[in-house]
Fold:
Amino acid sequence: MKKRIIWIVSSLCVLVFIVLIGAGSYFYDVAINRSDEDIKLHGGSDSETIVVSAMEQNLEQLKLEEVMEWTEQQTFETLELESEDGLKLKAAFLKNEKPNGKAVILAHGYKGNKEQMPGITKFYYEQGFDVLKPDARGHGESEGDYIGYGWHERKDYQQWVQLLINDHNADSIILHGFSMGAATVLMTSGEELPPEVKGIVADSGYTSVDEELTHQLKHMYHLPAFPLIEVTSVMTKIRAGYSFGEASALEQVKSNKLPLFIIHGDQDDLVPTRMANVLYEAATSVKDLWIVPGAGHTDAFTIAEEEYKERLLKFFEVAMVGE
Structure:
């Protein structure tokens, strides 16, 4: 009887182990592995229910057409670098016709690419900035078979910064990211950066990969984080070289010494708004927090474009003091 119980318990343990490995592998393929397939995230654009009038819709359409027309008239150069682990990374670079040493690196979100962010690209260009828009590893034209959620990308951004300084005479650099890109610039902010980097703008960033994936797992699959997150994290460490726990924007921002501007919508379900408050409280540098009423995930520029621009200009005054 005792042997039978041991056999049953052992069999159940093996079965649970196999199920967990299978589930972890599935979640890795969905969330970490590179794929051109779009996935629906909890709180993503498909779930937003923003009601606007016909007049407002027409106005937004006219703005978009104007921005896209402007974008098509620009000549973007493709820049390349090799990452520390041997990946060929690519970025779109727009040299300002009246260069003044200012440059911005714009970081796109999860499953995004360098072709995005046209509105903020135009804004920075009009302020005299050169604009660099990298494809993150595992995205667009950059190599990489996994998504780093900003953790390995932080090292890539150190290289992009140095490229701007060495090859394009940049002496005042802003890092500005959206969603995963916001987490990327926050993670970069905790690394050693040259004095040419003046400030960090993080729009809709998460505190850590662990917390963000836990949030998605709970709302998309209605599953508890433990032990699936831990199993997938171990699998990610083996296959991609990082764990969810170490990939923390929250811990990195504690080491940041640069002026920091955190932006977040109060209707953000994809990256909970509370994460912006946690990041802000943890930051010890000169900092500002703007929670945008009525804005969903990365919607602040669309919802409140003029105020967004005004607040950025004020931030530049703080970040580039003495310029």
About this structure: The beta strands are 77-82, 88-94, 102-107, 130-134, 172-178, 197-203, 260-265, 287-292. The CA atoms of residues 160 and 302 lie 28 Å apart. The first strand starts at residue 77 and ends at 82. Residues 62-208+247-319 form a domain with the Rossmann fold fold (CATH 3.40.50.1820).
